[in-house]
Design brief:
Rossmann fold, single chain, seven-stranded parallel β-sheet, alpha/beta
C-alpha cells in the first residue's frame, strides 16, 4: 500500500477510544495526522492507552454525547480546519422481533444511524469551511448484517443499513466538492469483548482491528484519489 501522508491534517475519530478506534488512531498518527476524539466519558477513559492520551497530536474532548445535536455541533465548530471525519462510534443489540422492545429499536437507530448523520453533517460543514477547497474525506462504519440478511438482529441491521445508504447517497451529493464518502463493512471483528461473548468461535477467521483500521485509513487519506461511494467489505474469512 502507498504510504499514507496525513501531515498537517486534522482527523476526527468518533469511538476513538474503543478497540477499532484506538487501532485507527495509531495508524493515523503514524501518517502524521492530528486526531480529535469526542468521548462520552466525563474523564479520560481508563482503558485508553497512556501513550496515546499523552500524545500532543491526540486531542480527546470528554463529555460529548453523539446523539445530542448541540453537543456534536459544538464539538465540530471548535475544531481547526478539518480534512477527514471517521465515524466508528456505535453499538450492538439483538433480539427476536417478537421480543424486541421499541426502546431497543430506538436505541440502535440513535447509536448507529443518528450519530452517523449528525457527525456527517457537521463534518461536511467544517470541511466546506476550509479555505483551500481541497475537499476531504468521510468514512463511516456499517456492518455485514446490513448487506447480508441475518436473523435476530433487525434493529442493528436496519440501523447499519441506514448508515450504508447514507454513505452512498452522501457520496453523490458531495462528489463535485471532492469530499469522498465511503464506508467499511466489517463482520465480527477480533476484539477482547467479542472473544469473551463468543468463546467457542473460530477467532482466526475474524478480521483484526489493525487490518480494518488500515482499510479505513486509506479511504480517509489524500492517497485515496478516486474511491467514493464504496461499501467496502472487511470480512476476513468470517
Amino acid at each position: 500500500m502507498t504510504n499514507l501522508d496525513f501531515t498537517n491534517r486534522n482527523v476526527v475519530v468518533t469511538g476513538g477510544t474503543g478497540a477499532l478506534g484506538t487501532a485507527l488512531v495509531r495508524v493515523l498518527l503514524d501518517g502524521g495526522a492530528t486526531c480529535h476524539l469526542p468521548a462520552i466519558e466525563h474523564a479520560m477513559p481508563h482503558h485508553f492507552p497512556a501513550e496515546l492520551a499523552s500524545n500532543e497530536r491526540v486531542r480527546v474532548t470528554c463529555g460529548i454525547e453523539l446523539t445530542d445535536e448541540a453537543a456534536v455541533t459544538g464539538f465540530y465548530a471548535k475544531l481547526p480546519a478539518l480534512w477527514a471525519s471517521v465515524h466508528v462510534a456505535g453499538g450492538f443489540d439483538m433480539a427476536p422481533v417478537a421480543e424486541m422492545k421499541l426502546e431497543q429499536w430506538r436505541h440502535m437507530i440513535d447509536m448507529n444511524a443518528t450519530t452517523c448523520f449528525l457527525c456527517c453533517r457537521e463534518a461536511v460543514r467544517k470541511i466546506r469551511a476550509t479555505k483551500d477547497g481541497a475537499g476531504g474525506r468521510i468514512v463511516n462504519v456499517a456492518a455485514k448484517p446490513a448487506l447480508i440478511p441475518t436473523g435476530g438482529m433487525i434493529a442493528y441491521s436496519a440501523s447499519k443499513a441506514a448508515v450504508a445508504n447514507l454513505t452512498v447517497s452522501l457520496s453523490e451529493e458531495l462528489a463535485n466538492e471532492r469530499i469522498w464518502v465511503n464506508a467499511v463493512v466489517p463482520s465480527i471483528m477480533d476484539t477482547f469483548a467479542n472473544r469473551k461473548s463468543m468463546p467457542s468461535a473460530e477467532f482466526d477467521k475474524w478480521p483484526k482491528v489493525d487490518e480494518v483500521a488500515a482499510t479505513i485509513a486509506f479511504l480517509a487519506s489524500p492517497q485515496n484519489a478516486v474511491t467514493r461511494g464504496g461499501l467496502v467489505p472487511v470480512y476476513g474469512r468470517s
